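Appendix B: complex inputs.
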Amino acid sequence: MAGTDRKLLERIWKAVAKIPRGQVASYGGIARRAGLPRRARLVGHALKVAPDGLRLPWHRVVNARGAISFPPGSRPYRLQREKLEQEGVRFRNGRVDVANHEMTDDLDALLWRPRRD
DNA sequence: GTTGTGACGACTT
DNA sequence: AAAGTCGCCACAA
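Resulting structure:
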């Protein structure tokens, strides 16, 4: 029977693992990178069920608006934000501060570079 | 089987 | 800018 799409989950986990430190990617972008366009929600699901042993940089995945997709102020929200700020990602108005839209010729580039000083 | 929900997103009002 | 609609689809009830 359906092995719960283990294959797809693994592709997603692999894509997430590649997000460089100090950078973030969107759910939709990761989906694309994993060869699963329009499956952004699956990415969220994949992260939710990801084994802790994988040590994925799950906190580097934010929504298309550059915001954290947990309820603001919630426990997971604070944890994610803390982890991001700890690696240099700055926030502006609850959004990842993107002070650089240059090399984004293809799509929104999937990866934004937060301003470092 | 149906319905509602959700770590989403693109489009349209 | 904000809210609504629609697409997507795994899961729980």
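The longest helix of chain A spans residues 6-17.
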